[in-house]
Amino acid sequence: xxxxxxxxxxxxxxxxxxxxxxxxxxxxxxxxxxxxxxxxxxxxxxxxxxxxxxxxxxxxxxxxxxxxxxxxxxxxxxxxxxxxxxxxxxxxxxxxxxxxxxxxxxxxxxxxxxxxxxxxxxxxxxxxxxxxxxxxxxxxxxxxxxxxxxxxxxxxxxxxxxxxxxxxxxxxxxxxxxxxxxxxxxxxxxxxxxxxxxxxxxxxxxxxxxxxxxxxxxxxxxxxxxxxxxxxxxxxxxxxxxxxxxxxxxxxxxxxxxxxxxxxxxxxxxxxxxxxxxxxxxxxxxxxxxxxxxxxxxxxxxxxxxxxxxxxxxxxxxxxxxxxxxxxxxxxxxxxxxxxxxxxxxxxxxxxxxxxxxxxxxxxxxxxxxxxxxxxxxxxxxxxxxxxxxxxxxxxxxxxxxxxxxxxxxxxxxxxxxxxxxxxxxxxxxxxxxxxxxxxxxxxxxxxxxxxxxxxxxxxxxxxxxxxxxx
Length: 471
Description:
This protein has 471 residues and is mainly α.
């Protein structure tokens, strides 16, 4: 930063660019929800097959986030962020010209890897940015959290408009100008990375734990293929692959000095482990509604992608309006009470989804999506604060990466459950079991928050933003 007068402006632009890059991943995780039916029709694939356009994105994100967190610590968060935005531009400029469904999934994988660089890099850069400005780290973190939370909420609305007027290809093209803006903002306004040791490529590959990443992906992929192919004939040979690959993954991560997922870090920090568990369960509930409701509205009720996006608009509006209030509530009454209120609202929202089995009148859907907006923003920003207070500063990049992985594990579980339940048709008969699963998990989420022990970070007062509810 060159002088005191320019520091606040540079900080503002840097955080805005980081926030823009950060929202790309959740935005693309939700925009696709209204494009599933058009993709299914264009490429003539089944309901279970089309879910791979979601699952491939989440598998790549789940594997990519912890790795990108490690790369941010190794090569510098600013450098990694800029590289990620270039990957996004290339992937989203080329994927719309794909001639096959497999190529679209490959484009989604590249998009996931590019966007996976943003959140760990942003979290790792915050302390440096805050040191050059008068704004505290929690306030800057709040701005990024609002962008991260709002990105997923506005996805169906933006995706619906793009698919209606420009086709499913537009949900890729829209990322190009956004990634360019994020690149330019960080390039010119974010502080440069501190000098780092130059390491040979061979050492980088060795420390990236490629075997661990492959075992992680193999475990999840084998499980997903087995579950999604239960009908008409299960692939029984895959069933033993899952525990074997999973056991090998755990063995590898505990033995290597540079694990892909630091299981020892999780074992030593129970608070952080509970943050990840609560966040995974929450996202299973949320993405069950996020992907299930648009698909149900289009398949069962005959709504177009554009109308479906508009019916999801209250979710985005409520999220944007309530997120700043949730941040103030955390500062005022504490993190734990705020999270418990959000978890209770999640149960209400999940149960309300059942009303759609009786009627999908527009006003009913608008009410349901508005009700879902409250727990989404409250729990999301609360869990981000819990992560920040539970993780050690030196683990910020890796911890943020694993946090995002827990989001994607929840989303993968949700899409798998929906793929199984909707395989015989998207009807009220298949919708009600999906609602039942979501409601039960919402209760589990609240119980996890209620029964975990209350602790505070060293130096954090009870009831403050430093208080991590899950422990």
